[in-house]
Amino acid sequence: MNAKKRQEVWYWMAMLSLFGGLTLACEPKKKKNPFAEDSTFAISQDSVVLRDRKAQASTDSAVTYDFVDSYAEGLAKVKLKDKFGYIDERRKEVIAPQFDEAGWFSGGFAKVRIKDKWGFVNKQGKVVIEPQYDQVGKFAEGLAMVELNKKRGYIDTNNKQLVPLQYDWAGDFQAGLARVSLDKKWGFINAKKQEVVPIGLEAARDFSEGLAAVWNGKKWGYINTQGQVVIPYQFDRAEDFTKADEKKEEKTKANKKEEPTAKVMEAGKTFYINPEGKCVKDCQ
After folding, report:
1. HEC profile of the chain
2. Is residue 273 in some structural domain?
3. CA-CA distance, 138 to 171, in Å (whole number)?
4. How far apart are CA 231 and CA 219, in angstroms?
5. Predicted local confidence at residue 245, as pLDDT
6. 125 in a structural domain
7. Residue 173 lies inside a defined structural domain of this protein
8. Which pLDDT score, from 0 to 100, does residue 284 have?
9. Per the structure, how many domains does the chain have?
10. Among 79, 98, 117, which residue terminates a domain?
11. Low-confidence residues of the chain, pLDDT below 50?
12. Residue 10, in any domain of the structure
């Protein structure tokens, strides 16, 4: 077994260990599929076998794949002989392995690669956008990033170019905005091609909980969706705002209502702030 295949098998074994409590042993084990009911996986040195628990044990009841990914929007990516396809939650192969590379489904579509070009396939297995791009993102809010000749823009599900291929870098849309870069400067646009936050930032992270961390060349701060600096440039490091985890036992009075917090660093000290920029955890 080559190193690449061994790495894939061990990855899947680790996933099963995480979700299903797999015990590693010298002999192959069968474990319940953590992503679909009434199925088991048998892991050997060279493959992952998906079997129907209700079917009789026979070679005809098993479909052998080199790799089985997690489910996204009801479909899971599978690999067979260096080609990718998809199965549904009933373990039925709905898209035969035929692509050189493939992504998870998002917005009803999955990106797929044939040779060195990317396109999109729908859940019925129809290639709705022929592979023609050098890179693509995922469909989010009806738009997907595409790259051709080192320039990026956005298309809709009909392959209509809504935002011209003009950016050096562009990310996926989130909450109506997408982070873009031109001439080493950063900003944010909406689906109408408007620069909601003008390109001119030295660096920026994606918006999360209505705020985005931005860099002025010396320090990090935070802006709102109108591009206004709401938390001054003062941090050496700044991460995204996220809501408090309800499962965590340690909660301060400030975040009992799941107030968003962000991990930041200032003067060598790491702590958490709220959207007003006040320290709410690990304050020193």
Report:
1. CCHHHHHHHHHHHHHHHHHHCCCCCCCCCEEECCCCCCEEEEECCCCEEEEECCCCCCHHHEEEECEEEEEECCEEEEEECCEEEEEECCCCEEEEEEECEEEEEECCEEEEEECCEEEEEECCCCEEEEEEECEECCCECCEEEEEECCEEEEECCCCCEEEEEEECEECCCECCEEEEEECCEEEEECCCCCEEEEEEECEECCCECCEEEEECCCCEEEECCCCCEEEEEEECEECCCECCCCCCCCCCHHHCCCCCEEEEEECCEEEEECCCCCEEECCC
2. yes
3. 9
4. 11
5. 61
6. no
7. no
8. 78
9. 2
10. 98
11. 16-47, 51-61, 246-247, 249, 252, 254-255
12. yes
Cβ-contact 150, 163 below 8 angstroms: no
- Residue 248 has a pLDDT of 53
Q: 154-172: per-residue pLDDT in tens?
A: 999 999 999 999 999 999 9
Could you list the residue range(s) of the whole structural domain that residue 234 is in? 218-284
Last residue of a domain, one of 77, 98, 119: 98
Q: Which residue has the tokens 């935002």?
A: 163
pTM of the model as a whole: 0.72
Tokens of 229: 């600096």
Give the largest Cα separation in the chain, rounded: 66
- Torsion sign across C-alpha atoms 16, 18, 21, 23: positive
Candidates 150, 109, 102; CA nearest to 129 is 109
